[in-house]
Amino acid sequence: MLMAWQTGIVKVLEDSQVSPPPGSVQTTTVPLTFFDIYWINCCPVQFLFLFEMPYPTLHFTQTTVPNLKTSLFLALKHFFPLAGNIIFPSPPQQPYILYSKGDFVPFIVAESTADFSHLVGNHEGTVGELQALVRGLPRSPVAKGCKQQPAMAIQVTVFPNSGISIGVTFSHMVVDGRVFTHFMKSWAVICKSKSDLISLGESLPIYNKDLIRDTGGNASIFMKDASEWEDLSSIPLQKLRITAVINRSQIEILKNWVKRKSREESPLHPLRISTFIVTCAYMWVCLIKSQETEMDDSTDHNVSHFVFAADLCDRLKIPATYFGNCLEPLFAEAKRGELLGETGILAAAKAVGREIMELERGALRGAERWVLRAKEISQSGGHLVNVAGSPKLRWYELDFGWGRPKKTEVADIGSNGLISIAESRDEEGGIEFGLALSKDESERFNAAFKEGWLMLS
Q1: Whole-structure pTM value
Q2: Beta carbons of 260 and 411 less than 8 angstroms apart
């Protein structure tokens, strides 16, 4: 099978499957909590990791691929739900994960003629270029009247004499970024050391779903609310993918500016300031400016939304190795006119900071409305930014034995306003964002991004 994009052709070399070691896992049902069910309408998540590897395709197929498959085989013994399927029984029954003997992770091996140096650079490319390096979750047949969906699929692609990419697609109902990172780093450790996690003394996932208490019946509420909402968003293949980097010195400029403006405006109520808050505020303003010509003055009172998620493990005293979602969605909002004003960055920082301060007053307050809130925002037709990822996940520390990634990407950016955030690959303390914009939006965004620093200095 061949897939052609502007920068090259991707040829599938092998379409295979990887299961846990025989006899290592019995048929197991893993229930889903309300944290998991919140994501029932979410499109599959797609992560892409690109590594430098100056070897020909033959070395890749004879050495690299066998090592990756063997280490994945061993990792799945401990992360077996990722080889299973999500089962969707008829409502009001709730979905669950089922691992049965013989279940597997679809594993594609491919070769690309694309320019590897172009893909790992911070210059513009298309979202379609990334999509050629990941595979979707294959459709599963209906069994006993229940729909099924595989939990995960993987595509490994070689760029001869240049590098390789590992593209992983997974259901957000099964894991969040924390668990996915735990899995990827465990797989990488096994691959690099050629040993099992237990012998290495690495932490193993915890499957005790009783750690999550649903005293408010949120799972049932989410099921009902989600059944009345279908997310029809799609991945914009022709949009340009952009990496926007904010370095450490720029972050300090942002913090100082926001702190000064906040004191001038409200000296008795200082604003909470963090790297996450000020960088997200800057991006929010630049993104709404990238849409500026598509709106007129009458839309100044329209509300723009900035949606992100907070990990609750520490707040709920859940072990960091717990297998399952443990995120609270936070919904920041501000009027378009405020964001476009002279102190738009301050308005954005206040909106994001306000949501974080509310969370610190108590997690899960109003949790029963999470799905309804997401539905209302998605269907409002207003400006929306959805943030995926976190600098705390440290994706650039991943090492399969070939050194750290040259680039990490969220391959499904652009869908439903999605952008990504990660730590900078080039500088400790820096931040990088992944975006998907049209050509006109890209030009307006780049202008706003550059002019913003002149205004702050």
Answers
A1: 0.94
A2: no
Number of neighbours of residue 28 by Cβ within 10 angstroms: 13
Beta strands in 336-417 (DSSP E): 384-388, 407-410
**438 three-state secondary structure:** coil
Rounded to the nearest 5 degrees, what angle is found at the Cα of 403, between the Cα atoms of 325 and 427?
75
d(CA 396, CA 391): 10
CA distance linking residue 326 with residue 339, whole number of Å: 31
Can you tell me the distance from the alpha carbon of 180 to that of 29, in angstroms, rounded to the nearest whole number? 19
- Cβ atoms of 241 and 409 closer than 8 Å: yes
Residue 250 is given by DSSP the state H
pLDDT in tens, 377-436: 988 888 999 999 999 999 999 999 999 999 999 999 988 889 999 999 999 999 999 999
Report how far residue 377's alpha carbon sits from residue 385's, in angstroms, rounded to the nearest whole number: 10
How do residues 322-373 score in pLDDT, each as one tens digit?
999 999 999 999 999 999 999 999 999 999 999 999 999 999 999 999 999 9
Give the CB-side neighbour count of residue 74, counting CA atoms within 13 A. Answer: 21
CA distance 406 to 427: 13
Residue with tokens 């972050």: 251
The encoded tokens of residue 166 equal 């590992």
Closest CA to 338 of 261, 272, 279, 276: 261
- For the annotated catalytic residues, the residue numbers are 172, 399
- Express the helix, strand and coil content of the chain in percent, nearest 5 each: 40, 25, 35
Report the distance separating Cα 184 and Cα 170, nearest Å. Answer: 12
Rounded to 10 deg, the angle between the 439-456 and 275-290 helix axes is 130
3-state secondary structure of 148: strand
Helix (H) / strand (E) containing 127: helix 127-131
Let me know: does 167 contact 157? Beta carbons within 8 Å.
Answer: yes
The residue assigned the tokens 């012998």 is 199
Distance, CA of 107 to chain centre: 20
